[in-house]
Specification:
The chain is an alpha+beta fold. The chain is built from 19 helices and 34 strands. The strands form 11 sheets. Strands 22, 23, 24, 26, 30, 31, 33 and 34 form an 8-stranded mixed sheet that branches. Strands 4, 7, 8, 9 and 19 form a 5-stranded antiparallel sheet that branches.
Length: 743
């Protein structure tokens, strides 16, 4: 990419072409909650569906008029991106990077990007607990700069320099900052004696069978009980390594045994040529693994025992004298100079546990320590960094979207991060807010900054790895935004940006969040990439408009950039950077505010809105999906739908509805414009509404009054086929800007 000074200084825009002409009529699209959407928002969506690049769309129940595309609108385009309707995501790995899936096989990210349905991967919690999670693969950047990370099992990982690896302590570090000898969070798998795939848990060292990890993740539904039977899990294709949820079925243990006996009697599977071929392949592969050696050693011992029992005298004669011969050999060796020297060396040798780093004097002691404390007997060698080197060739890169956990295992044996409204949960009772209200209010007033130009000064400025992101140096335009990013990291804007303490309630245990039913203290924030994202959007929207002067004035805000053009690639890179900055912004806000009251989170949920992703429609068509004021709601994807400052918000789980482009609303949606709210709602009416609900407001303009918003419960009800509710957030202390938003 070139390093020109500013996108608006490009060469003159081309003349109008027939490709800029709108369709005579809009493409048809579904609408959820039409009764809650005004005619102007529908007219905006109609215009968007007349664009020549549009292929699909949807309008969600929180929809209201926005710039160009309505807020609450979802638009799929082909080969082009619309800056005014978009936000961001992150870049990651080369397309040939392999990922282990639950079917027991490894697949490249490029291959996974062609899948239209979510698949299951391994993810890791900060405490080292490995779980099963749903994911999707997307291409995130074209012609990206790469580094090669080599780890001590010989694995080589090609990724962007800014991609984060999970360290052994659960923290993350960018690839470019990894150092030789640094320990990464490892991923180990093996087959047990019965052929079942097992994963070693890093928090305990214990080996867990994957099919039960899938069950405990909730992907199979509630675990049933069978009368007078033990619950087991049956593999429908009889392949114990295939742990895809659709291959697993709960059964009673006696029913399971009866089922297998019936198959033998019917000769429907066990005696088939295909099964025999697979059996031999599995045995051959198993023999080459450490657990295979243990298995066949045990089998050999059984054969020897049978041999001795059947012809004891012959076996005894064959072994006669073995002990005496071995004894004489060992005595002679140990008395030799070489044997004595080796014994002294072994006695003085210090062994270091490669799992926890503890020093043990003897090898036997090390073996016993690793087996007792970590459940490990073999060598663990794939979690140390050997080197990080720049790669000359650029490549297209891919990443996985892993809701809730935001990381995934590579076949190379380590875990890496993936990539924003944020909810953080804390292990204390919510009534702590009332007991220490002054302290909680100070945390919001002193540890946040709100306003159009809000910024931190001097030593109050935050440090974060995003400020060293190499993307800032790609163009002079991005370099000019770096100081702004530094000053605004950890701040919020005006309008509906907020940071609020409250109560999060969950009625059923949730394996994704790792929470039991109950009430939790929670911190919820809504912010973005601040002036960085605003300036990027404005600059490239103007550039897109300059490149399409023939567009009808009704859609001038929907001018697009072709993704195979230099300007399109620059925009995508810039918006990815803005997305990483937005994520870091939330991290800093939550760290500061929670730190001021001495709390450390135990779980969190994040989600995007105002962004675009490369996705594949069910018919296989590759598109760019713009979600403006909408949130991803793929099957199993968790998100947040907040209400107003005076109403509940909800953590939801998506159902992956294709007609809605796997999307849901990102809030309740405005019932009146900001100007109308200021002119019709009094401060007295707003404050009474909040007081009746026990909510304290710090700042906040009349334009954000609760009365200016639709009912979040009604909006949720209108999209029950798109999402299910996981938990409910009730605000108690709300911090917002004193000034109104853009009216």
């Amino acid at each position: 990419m070139s390093k020109r000074k500013h996108p608006k200084l490009r060469q003159a825009a081309p003349p109008p072409t027939a490709a800029e002409e709108l369709r005579a009529a809009p493409l048809q699209y579904p609408v959820w909650g039409r009764e809650y959407i005004d005619a102007a928002a529908i007219a905006q969506m109609d215009n968007a569906m007349r664009l020549p690049i549009s292929v699909s769309g949807a309008l969600l129940p929180d929809a209201h008029v926005g710039y160009g595309l309505p807020i609450g609108g979802v638009l799929a385009t082909e080969g082009a991106v619309i800056p005014f309707a978009v936000g961001v995501d992150i870049a990651c790995f080369s397309g040939d990077t392999k990922i282990p899936l639950l079917d027991g096989n490894d697949y490249t990210l490029a291959d996974l990007a062609n899948r239209t349905e979510p698949f299951c991967v391994y993810a890791c919690k900060p405490d080292g607990k490995i779980v099963v999670a749903q994911a999707t693969s997307i291409k995130t950047r074209v012609n990206a700069t790469l580094v090669e990370v080599t780890i001590d099992n010989g694995g080589k990982i090609l990724c962007t320099p800014d991609h984060e690896f999970m360290l052994r302590d659960g923290a993350y570090q960018k690839a470019s900052e990894l150092v030789t000898g640094q320990s990464l969070m490892p991923f180990y798998s093996q087959r047990d004696d019965e052929g079942y795939l097992r994963i070693q848990q890093n928090y305990s060292g214990r080996w867990h069978r994957v099919h039960w990890m899938v069950a405990r993740s909730g992907l199979l539904g509630k675990i049933p009980r069978f009368q007078a039977q033990r619950t087991v899990i049956h593999h429908r294709d009889f392949n114990e390594a295939n742990n895809n949820p659709d291959n697993l079925e709960f059964m009673g243990d006696r029913d399971h045994s009866s089922f297998h006996r019936s198959l033998v009697d019917q000769n429907t599977h066990w005696q088939s040529e295909e099964f025999e071929k697979r059996r031999k392949q599995a045995l051959s592969a198993k023999a080459r693994t450490e657990e295979g050696h243990h298995y066949f050693a045990a089998r050999g011992r059984g054969n020897l025992k049978t041999y001795w029992e059947q012809d004891y005298e012959r076996a005894k004669a064959n072994c006669a004298g073995n002990g005496q011969r071995g004894k004489l050999f060992l005595i002679a060796r140990n008395k030799s100079d070489k044997g004595r020297a080796q014994s002294r060396e072994i006695a003085a040798r210090i062994h270091i546990c490669d799992v926890c780093g503890e020093q043990v004097k003897s090898y036997i002691g090390l073996y016993n320590h690793r087996k007792r404390d970590h459940g490990v007997t073999g060598k663990l060698s794939n979690h140390k960094v050997v080197s990080v080197q720049r790669v000359k060739e650029n490549q297209d890169v891919y990443c996985l979207v892993v809701p809730d956990y935001h990381n995934f295992a590579l076949s190379a044996g380590v875990f890496v991060h993936n990539c924003r409204m944020r909810l953080s949960l804390y292990p204390v009772a919510p009534n702590l807010i009332g007991q220490k209200q002054g302290q909680f209010e100070r945390s919001l007033m002193e540890q946040t900054q709100f306003g159009m130009g809000a910024a931190w000064q001097g030593n109050r400025r935050a440090e974060h790895a995003v400020l060293d992101d190499p993307a800032w140096d790609v163009t002079a335009f991005l370099r000019s935004l770096r100081d702004t990013a530094y000053a605004q990291l950890g701040t919020s804007g005006t309008g509906n940006h907020f940071v609020e303490w409250g109560t999060f309630s969950i009625k059923e245990a949730d394996s994704r969040l790792g929470l039991e039913p109950g009430d939790y203290l929670a911190l919820l924030s809504h912010s973005g990439s601040r002036a960085v994202g605003f300036k990027i959007a404005n600059a490239y929207s103007q550039l897109a408009a300059d490149l399409h002067p023939g567009l009808d004035k009704t859609v001038r805000h929907l001018a697009w950039l072709d993704l195979d053009s230099e300007s399109g690639q620059e925009y995508w890179l810039s918006m990815e950077l803005a997305g990483r900055f937005a994520s870091a912004n939330h991290t800093v806000i939550h760290r500061r505010v929670a730190g001021a009251v001495g709390l450390k989170e135990i779980a969190s949920v994040e989600n995007h809105h105002n962004f675009a992703w490369r996705e594949t429609l069910p018919n296989g068509r590759k598109v760019i999906v713009h979600r403006k004021g909408a949130t991803p709601a793929g099957r199993g994807v968790m998100g947040i739908i907040p209400g107003s400052m005076g109403d509940a918000g909800y953590v939801i789980r998506g159902k992956g509805e294709p007609a809605a482009l796997s999307s849901a609303s990102h809030g309740a949606g405005r019932a009146m414009s900001r100007k109308a709210a200021i002119n019709s709602i009094t401060k007295t009416a707003r404050d009474q509404y909040l007081r009746e609900r026990g909510i304290t407001l710090l700042g906040g303009g009349l334009d954000e009054s609760p009365q200016a918003y639709k009912s979040v419960e009604a909006i949720l009800g209108a999209q029950s086929d798109l999402v299910e509710v996981v938990g409910r957030f009730i605000p108690r202390l709300v911090r917002m800007a004193d000034e109104p938003g853009d009216i």
